[in-house]
Amino acid sequence: MTVLLAIYLQDHHAAGVAGARVARRVASSVPSDRPEADLSRVAEEIAEDLATLESIMRTLGMKPNGIKDAIARSGERLGRLKPNGRFRQRSPLSDVLELEMLLVGITGKQAMWVTLRNATTLPTEELDRLIKRAEDQKRSVESARKAAARRAFGGTDD
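-> structure tokens emitted (158 positions)
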């Protein structure tokens, strides 16, 4: 089980490396017209969550996989090259897609915290805090995503 858990955490770490980069970019480029959609706070928390995962891995005697992390960083960079309907400036479509990627990543991270809570002897109080924080992050990103979709496609937030 330890080998499988190490692979699992290395995979989540690699996803977290890419996710933290996306979160920083989104925080600096997506307009936030809603106070509940504090993307700078979310980006900071995602970076903290990655550091927490690294600490947990050390506690469990595991290390991130540099190759997986490099592939994730490269994939994140390549993802920026996708056609988005604009050549010289950021497209509103990029905002929507990157916020949706963040939602998927935060949901996966939250599932990882739940798995660690149920499959290890790590302190449950800290994991419960991380699970709740992920839920708060999802609410913030979803609020920003709805606004970005409205800017890109029109319509309402519903």
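The chain has a mean pLDDT of 90.
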